Amino acid sequence: MRENRQGRWLAEALEPICKEHNIKLYDVGERERRSHVPQEILSLLQFCDRPHSPDYLKAALDVLVQRQLIPTQDINTLASLPEEFLYPGPLAKPQTETVKTTAHLCRTLLRARLELPTYQIISFLALALKYDQAELATADKLAERVNLQMFGNNSMEAILSALSEIVNSERFEPVDTDNLEEQYTKKGQLTIITMHKAKGLDWDYVFLPFLHENLIPGKFWVPPQGQFLGAFTLSEVARAQIRAALHQNGENIPNISQAWEDAKYLKMAEEYRLLYVAMTRAKKLLWMSAAEQAPFTWSKPNNLQASAPCPVFAALKRQFSENVVNYN
């Protein structure tokens, strides 16, 4: 998979089929998501503690989007005016239904902060995020750890301090006794893994679905609110200019237009290198596909639209045709 969200959707779709045929399904992304439980809980708690902070509100909304609890939307605009978003007055601009739903969920989290004792807040947030069984177990372990650290001081400051220490000092995740590489490549198992994680591994049969042009090579998308300086992403331009300065000893630093073009080229090259790594993981069979329709964004997998396949299909087709002609 190119994205973890694709893997999550595919795991849910294949789970009943694998159970019917007694095939073990191992979703690598599920284990990684459990390691993000402390950070997600911390983001929501920081928002509950300081809901008027645009940064904390944006971080909380980002978690809710990633967990697919709210639709993908312009969270920067929502976070810019926290009071107007959470508690709009009679003179405020009418909110869309999507924004109303998002605001209601945020107010629910704030109300829980006021009504629940601090030692129960982590468990409540885990349920609010609709964690699966493994994630809930991780959240329970996290809550026990935090409660021990804040023993005798049941304040929000204490719980935030304990959580921040855990997030900043370690990766809070279940202990695995098995070698991870062996776990990924175990025989008789269907492994769902991202292209990044697959580096250095190989399987007899490799399937690469959802190879669409909007993901590989993809393209930079600059939201309208981010185009106040021009149709480019400032961070990518700065990164390209810094890269050029380091490689050329400060000489011939590209201007904004050239730096933006360099950034787009580097992204395309990196995506194709990643695809090549994924293709070369197969020892016996490589299966690649791109459906005629695909989600516009994988946060809404049922929102299908016509999607062009990755250009590598056309290149492979031409190469195959030339080889056949040369062979004949």
Describe the structure.
The chain is mostly helical and 328 residues long. The protein has two domains: 31-169, PCRA, domain 4, CATH 1.10.486; 195-327, Double Stranded RNA Binding Domain, CATH 3.30.160. 57% of the residues lie in helices and 8% in strands. It has helices at 4-20, 28-35, 37-49, 54-66, 75-80, 82-86, 97-115, 118-128, 133-149, 156-169, 180-184, 214-218, 234-247, 256-279, 312-327; strands at residues 24-27, 189-192, 203-208, 282-288, 293-295, 304-306. The chain has a two-stranded parallel ribbon. α3 (37-49) runs antiparallel to α4 and α3 packs antiparallel against α10. The protein is globular. 22% of the residues are buried.
SSE blueprint and pairings:
Elements: H1 4-20, E1 24-27, H2 28-35, H3 37-49, H4 54-66, H5 75-80, H6 82-86, H7 97-115, H8 118-128, H9 133-149, H10 156-169, H11 180-184, E2 189-192, E3 203-208, H12 214-218, H13 234-247, H14 256-279, E4 282-288, E5 293-295, E6 304-306, H15 312-327
Helix pairs in contact: 3-4, 3-8, 3-10, 8-9, 13-14
